[in-house]
């Protein structure tokens, strides 16, 4: 194990210095390098390739138990401790998903009237906006995406991304849509989440000529 570490770091540090630090002889290291690769080391190297592929495919969320299960499903026979050892040696750790607790709260504001009446085909640009929110996985973790669409063109005219699903996220998407210069606004339709989050915030939809409509699901 120490010889393997020295071999990986040999381009960055002096071999003799590392041998002194790890308390091994330089002659022993060079003898180890000239020694043919053992069958177990060769099998470990081949198994590590499969482990890395499963770990990457699972977006680094799998620990050794689930990686071992996937290897078993693919027909690779190995012990769970062997998988655990290889993942530990090469610092392959499963990412723990963050748990969220959803808390219901009473909204004191009255519900908005249903201005659309399920009429989703719009003939005028910037007459009806629809907003929604979702979450996406990125290499940096989960993020929330809020979008505002013009139902006439079905194009996104405002959007915002954040690590937290709070009121400011939807407000930023609405403000970005407002900066597009759309002035012929007559109604606004929002999904359930976005509508609840916009209500009660100091930013007022009526400030730009918007009239909130009842949340809808198509």
In short:
With 218 residues, the protein is of the alpha/beta class. It is built from eight helices and five strands.
If you had to describe this structure to a student in words, what would you say it looks like?
This protein has 218 residues and is an alpha/beta fold. It folds into two domains: 2-89, no CATH class; 128-213, Ribonuclease H-like superfamily/Ribonuclease H (Nucleotidyltransferase, domain 5), CATH 3.30.420.10. The protein has eight helices and five strands. Strands 3-2-1-4-5 form a five-stranded mixed sheet. Strand 2 and strand 3 (155-162) form a beta hairpin. Helix 4 (39-57) packs across helix 5 and helix 5 (64-73) crosses helix 6 (80-89). The radius of gyration is 29 Å and the shape is elongated. The protein starts with a helix and ends in a 5-residue tail after the last strand.
Q: In DSSP terms, counting alpha (H) and pi (I) runs of 4 or more, how many helices?
A: 8
Average pLDDT, all residues: 76
**Domains (count):** 2
Provide the succession of SSEs: HHHHHHEEEHEHE
Q: What's the total count of β strands?
A: 5
**Major sheet details:** 5 strands, mixed
Q: Cα-atom Rg, whole angstroms?
A: 29 Å
**Anisotropy-based shape:** elongated
Q: What level of helicity do the residues show?
A: 25-40%
Ends apart, CA distance between termini: 60 Å
Q: For the largest sheet, list the strands in their spatial order.
A: 3-2-1-4-5
Note the beta-strand portion: 15-25%
């Amino acid at each position: 194990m120490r010889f393997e570490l020295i071999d990986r770091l040999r381009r960055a540090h002096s071999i003799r210095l590392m041998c002194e630090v790890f308390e091994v002889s330089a002659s022993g290291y060079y003898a180890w390098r000239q020694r043919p690769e053992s069958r177990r080391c060769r099998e470990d190297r081949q198994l590590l390739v499969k482990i890395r592929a499963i770990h990457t495919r699972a977006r680094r969320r799998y620990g050794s138990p689930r990686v071992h299960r996937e290897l078993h499903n693919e027909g690779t026979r190995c012990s769970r401790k062997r998988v655990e050892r290889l993942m530990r040696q090469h610092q392959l750790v499963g990412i723990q998903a963050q748990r969220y607790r959803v808390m219901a709260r009473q909204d004191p504001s009255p519900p908005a009237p249903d201005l659309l009446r399920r009429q989703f085909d719009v003939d005028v640009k910037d007459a009806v906006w629809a907003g929604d929110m979702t979450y996406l996985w990125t290499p940096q973790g989960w993020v929330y995406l809020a979008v505002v669409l013009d139902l006439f063109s079905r194009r996104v005219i405002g959007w915002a991304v954040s690590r937290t699903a709070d009121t400011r996220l939807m407000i930023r998407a609405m403000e970005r849509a407002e900066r597009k210069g759309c002035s012929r606004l007559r109604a606004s339709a929002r999904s359930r989440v976005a509508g609840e989050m916009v209500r009660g915030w100091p930013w007022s939809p009526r400030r730009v000529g918007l009239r909130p409509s009842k949340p809808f699901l198509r």
